[in-house]
Design brief:
- The chain is an all-alpha fold and 107 residues long.
- It has one domain.
- 53% of the residues lie in helices and 0% in strands.
- It contains three helices and no strands.
- The longest helix is centred in the middle third of the chain and has 27 residues.
- The radius of gyration is 15 Å and the shape is elongated.
- The chain starts with 12 loop residues before the first helix and ends in an 18-residue tail after the last helix.
- The N terminus is likely disordered.
């Protein structure tokens, strides 16, 4: 009987997970040549772009739409959690709503 939570063989899940917290760190290591890690770096970059967009929107709207700001921040956080869970499973599944745009990045 095998465990269901073991790391998928041949996948650098550690660097893939790190890509969701600090997307560029895996690009500074040998993991940059791993297609699995690159996929998650691209998804992590999308999370970063979404977070910056939410923060810009928050600064423009100021305190008037406090609830909307918190909902958007929570949505970005949930996307990050989904990405981390996908990377930990060893899967390459795009993030909901924004994941399809990750393929446009070339590096």
């Amino acid at each position: 009987m095998t465990e269901t939570n073991q790391t998928p063989k041949g996948k650098n899940t550690g660097m893939a997970i790190l890509a969701y917290f600090i997307f560029f760190i895996p690009l500074l290591t040998e993991a940059k040549n791993d297609s699995f890690v690159k996929y998650h770096v691209k998804q992590g970059l999308l999370i970063f772009i979404a977070w910056v967009a939410v923060e810009i929107l928050n600064s423009i709207l100021s305190w008037r739409f406090y609830t909307l700001e918190r909902v958007l921040e929570l949505a970005v956080f949930v996307l990050m959690i989904i990405g981390v869970m996908t990377a930990a499973k060893g899967e390459e599944k795009p993030l909901p709503l924004i994941g399809k745009y990750g393929e446009q990045f070339k590096f």
